[in-house]
Amino acid sequence: MKLAETELNREIVSEAEWLVARKDLLRREKEFTRQRDALSAARRSLPMVKIDKNYVFEGPDGKETLADLFDGRSQLIVYHFMFGPDWDEGCKSCSYLADHFDGANWHLPHRDVTFVAISRAPLPKLEAYKKRLGWRFKWLSSQGNDFNFDYHVSFTKEEEQKNKVYYNYATGEFISDELPGLSVFYKDENGDVFHTYSAYARGLDYLVGTYNFLDLVPKGRDENPDSTMDWVRRHDEYLA
Amino acid sequence: MKTPPIVSAQKWEAARQQLLVKEKELTRARDALAAERRRMPWLAVKKNYKFDGPKGKVSLLDLFEGRRQLILYRAFLEPGVKGWPEHACIGCSMVADQVAHVAHLNVRNTTLAFASRASQKDIERVKARMGWEMPWYTITDDFDKDFGVDEWHGTNAFIRDDDSVFRTYFINERGDEQMGNTWNYLDITALGRQEEWEDSPEGYPQTPPYEWWIWHDEPKTADEDRPGLVQLRAARAASKGGDIT
Q1: Which candidate from A113, A203, A209 shows the least CB-CB separation from B179?
Q2: Contact (CB, 8 A) for A199 and B188
Q3: Residue B149 covered by a domain
Q4: What part of A 31-70 touches B (C-beta under 8 Å)?
Q5: Which of B15, B33, B41 sits opposite A18 (nearest CB)?
Q6: Is ipTM > 0.85 here?
């Protein structure tokens, strides 16, 4: 495995020169961290929408409403996991994201956050798949309600025929009957529930710890720009 | 708590669209930073560092496990660190909790490992207790001093060309936050991290940074003397600035 074989050839320098280059990059990294803090502050100032619909989900604890899912906390994060009612397996890229959920979920409850995943597939399919991949997070089925459609992560046959869907805050061509997303809800002292935030597509990127690690190494994510998650498999399907 | 305005779905959509423009800018800025990282010069590692591993003495080269790249996180697990001998440092424990299935990094020809001063026996015990599965080595020489991690946590990245090893990257302090997605999740909630330094709307719940951290197996208590909190306060008092922002 010689570097020359792969065109990956970086300048090799002295420690002093390396430090100069590293410090220059660090200055820009710090700017970025501050920009990110400012963006998070802007998120906390987004207005909220009161939810009047009564969504009922099927989960491991039986039937639960959106308000029930808060589980005594005031904030709820829902990952919209792509798993259509007639699919045999959950989406492989969502599974890649889901490999990162449980670690964070040790700590989120200690900041007043409950985390769940919701899909349209029936509960027995979700539970079998969750067991196969060894996950702990709570996963509920929205089969039979409008939740996935209202939050723009599932699409109707009609939308498919018209080849026109609303996703990530823009109208575009139909891609799949399910797409990934994440939504955030807030419950006030009166028990009213509000929608505060949703993100889709690359807005989910920074939840993927593996990418955060890969962004530090010389080869980076090393992905096909036209089909970024080509290399991803379910963690029990990698060959080596 | 005084909430932001409660609006119609249409108005929310408009506000969300505006924020999305800024979020996309930041995503692109992050891509550009990662692109610069890929162009950083390399520093040859010339010393022959030795670590203890589960199967005995190993070199830095062995830590690659045959892969092209190595990411090595320096965790504080050793005598003298609060929590010893049951736990690693509370912050390092939180970082370890958030390492996802390493299969995804491995298929990108990249090995992720942790290193501490504790013996392999102690490391194995703490890993089993906390359910962690990443490779974790014992530092036996000047490695930590030479790579800027003798006093504080930090992450080094290396690449190898046959048997030659190069240091390509180092990050510490708040730079290590990107390795954990608890922070990323909290940053999208209505209340944020709920830490005092944050620019939040008036009246939002906020507590000092770090002090809410827990060992995930510690008993639930609001006790001000709980070991994690005592450790953090001592560490912050002893650190240069003590200010994460």
Answers
A1: A209
A2: yes
A3: yes
A4: 32-33, 35-50
A5: B41
A6: no
